[in-house]
Design brief:
The chain is α+β, with helices and mostly antiparallel strands. It has three helices and eleven strands; from the N terminus they run ααββαβββββββββ. Strands 1, 2, 3, 4, 9, 10 and 11 form a seven-stranded antiparallel sheet that branches.
Length: about 180
C-alpha cells in the first residue's frame, strides 16, 4: 500500500475509496420518465378499450307507449277541452260538432307546454305569450305555426285510440289526412 492511499483509508475511518461514492438511486431519471410514459399510455389505452366495450352495449331509455286508449267518444263534451291526458301524454282531446281531434301540448315556438284558458277559449303559452285558438291555430305571439295534431282513431272496442307518435302539421296540409280528425 502506498503511503497516500493508506493514509486516506485510515483518515476515512477504515472505509475504502469506493465506498465514498454515493450509492446509485433506485431509478434513474430516464427510467422514471419511461415508466411514467408507459403508465400514461396504459391508462389511456384502458379507457379507450372501456369506451369501445361500453359502446357495444348502448344505454336504452325507457319510452312510454306512444298510443293509448282515451275512453269512448261520448265521454267528451262538445266544445270542451279535455286535459285528462295532458300530464301523462302531453295531449288535449277536443270534441266539436263535427268530431274529435287531439292536439299535442307543445308550443311550436320553443317547446313549452301551453295552458288552456277556459274563460278565454284559447291556449296560452306561459313562456313567451303565444296564443292558439281551440282549433290549435296560432293567432298571437312568436309561435311560427299552429299546434300539431296527433292521430285519433277508433279501436276495435269503440274507444278512442290516440297515437302521440304520429303528428300532423296544418301548414303542410296534414290536418285533412285520415287520423288527424275523427268524425263521430
Amino acid at each position: 500500500m502506498s503511503g497516500t492511499a493508506g493514509q486516506q483509508a485510515k483518515s476515512s475511518g477504515g472505509r475504502s475509496a469506493a465506498a465514498a461514492v454515493p450509492p446509485a438511486s433506485l431509478w434513474s431519471r430516464r427510467d422514471f420518465l419511461g415508466r411514467l410514459g408507459w403508465t400514461g399510455f396504459g391508462i389511456v389505452s384502458l379507457l379507450a378499450l372501456l369506451s369501445a366495450i361500453r359502446s357495444a352495449f348502448p344505454r336504452v331509455l325507457f319510452r312510454p307507449e306512444s298510443s293509448f286508449k282515451a275512453g269512448y267518444p261520448d265521454d267528451y263534451v262538445i266544445g270542451e277541452v279535455s286535459e285528462r291526458f295532458k300530464r301523462s301524454f302531453r295531449v288535449w282531446i277536443i270534441r266539436n260538432e263535427e268530431g274529435i281531434y287531439a292536439l299535442y301540448a307543445k308550443c311550436t315556438h320553443l317547446g313549452c307546454t301551453p295552458r288552456w284558458l277556459k274563460a278565454e277559449q284559447k291556449f296560452k303559452c306561459p313562456c313567451h305569450g303565444s296564443g292558439f285558438y281551440i282549433s290549435g291555430v296560432n293567432f298571437e305571439g312568436p309561435a311560427p305555426r299552429p299546434l300539431e295534431r296527433v292521430r285519433v282513431t277508433l279501436a276495435d272496442d269503440g274507444q278512442l285510440l290516440v297515437d302521440v307518435g304520429v303528428r300532423y302539421r296544418q301548414e303542410k296540409g296534414e290536418w285533412n289526412r285520415r287520423g288527424a280528425f275523427l268524425r263521430v
